[in-house]
Amino acid sequence: MRLLRVLGLLILAVCVLVWGWSIWAEEAPMPTSQGVERKIVAEVNGEPIYLEDLERIWNSLPEAYRTQFPRGMQDLLEQFIRQLLLLQEARKIGLESDPEVVKQIEELKKQVLIREIIKREIIEKVQVSDEEIQKEYNANPTLYTEPEQVKARHIMVSSREKAEAILAELKTGRPFEEVAREKSESPDALSGGAMGYIRRGDLDPEIEKVLFELAPGNYSDIVEINDGFHIFLVEEHLKPRLKELSEVREEIIARLTPQKQQEAFEKWIEELKSKAEIAIIEENLPSGSNAEKVQEGGSPSP
Predict the structure, then answer these.
(1) pTM above the 0.70 mark?
(2) Quick one: CATH architecture of 148-239?
(3) What is the mean pLDDT of residues 223-249?
(4) Which residues form the PpiC domain (predicted)?
(5) What CA–CA distance (Å, rounded) separates 242 from 256?
(6) Using an 8 Å Cβ cutoff, are 222 and 231 in contact?
């Protein structure tokens, strides 16, 4: 599995737990300027919730998460209060010293430490150089080329007779867009039959053949398709264009970064392994299909 996908899942799993434990739990107070009083926004059984903690969490939330709090900080405060009530209740019944809970907290701590060391040693350090960007751009021009495309309009009616009447009307010089609004039976009639930009491969080959052979400003003859009878107009015909490096620089960085991070991660792991003392006790390791049936006691299940 790719490093970033693993890390992404780890972060997603950890974030909820970390916010719930380290933020809504009793955490070490944030340092404040001497003499500056921390503003309390709520108290739960005498335990304060501080404005700066609320703001810190709000500012760290991704925009997509904020939509889950329609009333903003008020809704977030409600979540703080709920979490604190649950936390106080858990402490009241002694869950902090429960062996299973302690074990889960230790596992979470390990995950947070692993996430942070990967972030600091790999994610934050690995950079894609200008030379690598240029090399990728030169080596894969097709990836960074805008395909041939046309900007088109169409008129669709339910019978050939109607289509022939419209074609005759167009030949008098009446604007295509105007006729489309008035006569087309297609849902896009209100937009003058606008089809937007169409790339090769977007539509049925029969339609594409008509569109890509038309010169800009020209309209087609009647084309019969399953849903009716069409007349097409091509407004623009754009040839394939290799984008400027500046246009695709960020795309190239996004493409190369995961691979570089993965390579750096594997190299780093091998370096750590070379410096470590690792002993694998093969005879204690289940083999074959039995490895999938290992029970908590350490022995394969029958």
Answers:
(1) no
(2) Roll (3.10)
(3) 94
(4) 147-236
(5) 19
(6) yes
